[in-house]
Design brief:
Blueprint (H helix, E strand, L loop, with lengths): L1 H14 L2 H16 L5 H22 L5 H29 L5 H8 L2 H12 L6 H19 L3 H5 L5 H23 L5 H23 L10 H29 L1 H6 L3 H14 L5 H36 L1
Helix pairs in contact: 1-11, 2-11, 2-13, 3-4, 3-10, 3-11, 4-9, 4-10, 5-9, 6-9, 7-14, 10-11
Length: 315
């Protein structure tokens, strides 16, 4: 049983790489979509559509559970309000008021706060290996964002957009920590479905009073293609994998993968918009990959080796 669990954890480490890949691609897609429709309408369309798709999957697989919903409705509601409603409201609106550099720098601190929160409130263990991996991956993101020049960092100035990104940051941190507790004994699919439906409901109310729905019909073909990508890959698949990762390997280790988001956003810009890559970005990407490896894969391999040694000694 323990061997199967450890094998499942290793698979989860690799599957979690898809989450920042999809979220990184969604960053550029969202930036373009909100030039045609309002940020709240875009968030509503994204999570409303994703929630309905997930609901169909849940019903087909007969995973709808009224008993779980009755027992955990408070926690699921908090997850929906923090991770779907408030996070996306703050994030999309912030994109209208501040630069990608400022926003990326703020959001890159997410793993630090989730790890500290998990240690302080959820009794997750701290290790030197985890700390080194966390520091190295964060340093890699930091290098990419400031492009190797501290002058870039010095020139940053806080504005309303930056403050909204800080609010988005803490919304996501709270969402991750609550999810670690709430999802015990609940399938990630059911959790993601409920939170998406509830979160999109609140977003829809805001969008209705904002009057942004009328612009949806006039969206360009490119925006519709980007929205489909965001719904299917960046929401349905990515959120399922994220919730499963938090449930299976813990909030602190899962959060480290968010350092890949700005890295993948950079690669998306290079691939689709002809941007060039700098040495700072290459070095930063290498640091992030090594940091994630140190914090996750290496520790798992070392545990496997120690178990084999104990088995051999017992024989």
């Amino acid at each position: 049983m323990g061997a199967q669990s450890e094998k499942g954890n290793k698979s989860m480490y690799f599957l979690l790489l898809l989450v920042p890949l999809f979220w990184g691609g969604a960053f550029g897609a969202a930036k373009h979509i909100i030039t045609e429709i309002s940020p709240i309408t875009a968030a509503t369309l994204r999570f409303g559509s994703a929630g309905l798709i997930l609901l169909v999957i849940v019903l087909i697989r007969s995973e709808w559970d009224w008993e779980v919903l009755k027992k955990r409705w408070r926690g699921l509601l908090l997850m929906a309000v923090t991770g779907i409603f408030s996070y996306n409201a703050f994030f999309f609106i912030a994109l209208e008021h501040t630069s990608v550099v400022n926003g990326s720098l703020i959001m890159a601190t997410t793993p630090v706060f989730i790890t500290l929160g998990a240690i302080l409130f959820l009794n997750e263990t701290w290790s030197i290996r985890l700390g080194c991996g966390l520091f190295l991956s964060f340093a890699g993101v930091f290098l990419v964002i400031i492009q190797g020049s501290f002058q870039t960092l010095i020139s940053l100035s806080l504005n309303i957009g930056d403050l909204l990104f800080v609010a988005a940051l803490f919304s996501w941190v709270i969402h991750g920590l609550i999810g670690k507790v709430v999802m015990q004994g609940i399938s990630p699919l059911f959790t993601t479905t409920i939170t998406s439906l509830i979160g999109s409901f609140f977003l829809a109310i805001w969008s209705f009073f904002e009057g942004g729905g009328k612009d949806v019909l006039s969206m360009s073909g490119q925006s519709w293609f980007e929205m489909i990508y965001m719904v299917v890959f960046a929401t349905v698949i990515a959120f399922l994998l994220w919730n499963k990762g938090v449930h299976q390997i813990g909030a602190s280790k899962s959060s480290i993968y968010m350092n890949f988001v700005p890295i993948n956003a950079t690669w998306t810009a290079i691939l689709f918009y002809g941007s060039t890559v700098t040495w700072q970005q290459l070095v930063g990407m290498a640091m992030v990959i090594i940091g994630v490896y140190i914090a996750t894969f290496s520790s798992g391999l070392r545990k496997t080796k120690s178990k084999r040694q104990l088995t051999q000694q017992s024989v």
